[in-house]
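Chain A, query sequence.
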Amino acid sequence: MKENKITNIDDIIASVNTAFSKKSIDRTEHIEEISECLMTLGKSDMRVGQAFENIRSKYGGDLFNMENDKLLELFKELITPSDK
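Chain A, predicted structure.
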């Protein structure tokens, strides 16, 4: 396990930037790590939606590649209000 835990939205954005600068295999692994962090932070930090918009505007089509469906679906879930 890695010692450097992602603890806030800014770290997530930085991690996504890192992930998108890597090769596909590394990127997929990195996105899984980011997804885990988002699951923890997403429901409590209202900036998740803003983070998604920033990332989507920066990477556009890249974010919507098949390998990134997991991350995209997670963001959609997190930015959709829930009454549960």
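The radius of gyration is 12 Å. The chain has one domain: 9-79.
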